[in-house]
Amino acid sequence: MSEATEPGMEMRQVPAPEWAGEEPLVFELGGDLERGPREVETGVADRPLAELLPGVALRASPAAVPAVPEPVLARHLGRLARRNHNLHQGIYPLGSCTMKYNPVVDEELARLPGFADIHPYQDAGDVQGALQLMWELERLLCEITGMARISLQPAAGAHGEWTGLRMIQAYHAAHEDTHRTRVLIPDSAHGTNPASAALAGLEVVTIRSNADGTVDVADVARHLDSSVAAIMMTNPNTLGVFEKDILEIARIAHEAGALLYYDGANLNALVGLARPGDMGFDVVHLNLHKTFSTPHGGGGPGSGPVGVAEALAAFLPTPTVERDGDRFLLDHDRPQSIGKVRSYYGNFGMLVRAYAYIRAYGSSISAVAENAVLNARYLQSRLRGIFPMAVASDSMHEFVATTKGSRVVGLRALDVAKRLLDYGVYAPTAYFPTTIPEALMFEPTETESMRSLDLLADVCAAIVAEAERDLDHVRGAPYLTPVSRVDEVEAARRPVLRWRRAE
Ligand SMILES: Cc1ncc(COP(=O)(O)O)c(C=O)c1O
Questions:
Q1: CATH for 366-492, among 3.10.129.10, 3.90.1150.10, 3.40.50.450, 3.10.20.30?
Q2: What is the pTM of this model?
């Protein structure tokens, strides 16, 4: 008798572990679609539902919601979390997105019942603490940006852009200056800038950048006339370069009657060190989920407060939070307001986190920007011999490299981005800004250590060396992620976005 067939020791066919293959959708995990994991005691079970609800509210058939036992759901979510890169796993140098580590204490504060369990329809008298927090956050953000007033309502940076442009339109209309229908936007701008302008009904005029990556002031001057409502600028811009001519741009914009809009997505480079208001900006949006360390969410809930100089304060969305002695109240009576831009007062939980973050730093918040810039410059200096840089200028908190002109002919930004995933590093932003071919935009943020910056630089060097030996191998990456390289054309043309029950 061989060892393998000893009684009771026969080799059994062991199924692959649950985490090894494709993860099913929660709908496919099986279970009874009509009953959840627990019977929930409603206290109304002995009264016919029809007595409690009007007929129209009653379903004719049970909702097709997944109903799986709690442990099954918990493991499903755990497996999904392991399949995704996140900041608890490693560096996430996604340029322009400021994927810094979010302190746990901010999460805990946002979950305090006094913040988490209140309802926006409660009487102002019952939610004084929440109103005070919003009032104080507005003051803190005004201090940081140099703006006179701020609305906390917009739910994302892009939403803040649109809100800001609507206020700029209201400002011009109030001055009977109704022919200002154009917005000047640099060619390096984030795509949301022209998109927001178009959505506000404005015509976009693209402004050229110089070889050093900054906006061409002469091109701005050429396009400035009485039809221009605003110039939208990001500073530092999306190449990570400080717009050194910003005071001159502000001067000529104002001389021509236009307003200056600040896209605050890159405030992490300047927070506590320089203020957009002092540079001459009239309207500013902030991405709390970038600089102020609130979660980015999967497209939300974010927060994009928008601030204005005194001359535009009357146009802020309603309601504003005001203080009357010791009391805080909501002011809905603002006749020149552009109106409401979001239900209730924005994503309140994000406001609590941002408030906690700012108060924790206090007057030393400039350390955020100093370390963000230091980290970016260190990483850039380590990568200089590995990738060409898009521009020669010194970077601020992020920089753009390119694979074009690197040692390996044919190595694409996409290949580097995908291969990085095999090394446990999230990819930098690729192919943005669109003015730079084969762009890789790195933003390490202040929360990375020198050790993790060195790891990232070493991995980039290893990938380029690998590509020199065997380019096809790099082109086939990633190999170790749950999903390998997808057919991007197919994914874009025929996306499968909706679960349907199998026939
Ligand atoms: C420069 C810049 N502007 C605007 C936005 C839009 O912000 P949000 O994603 O919060 O809408 C982004 C987002 O990455 C950005 O990088």
A1: 3.90.1150.10
A2: 0.89
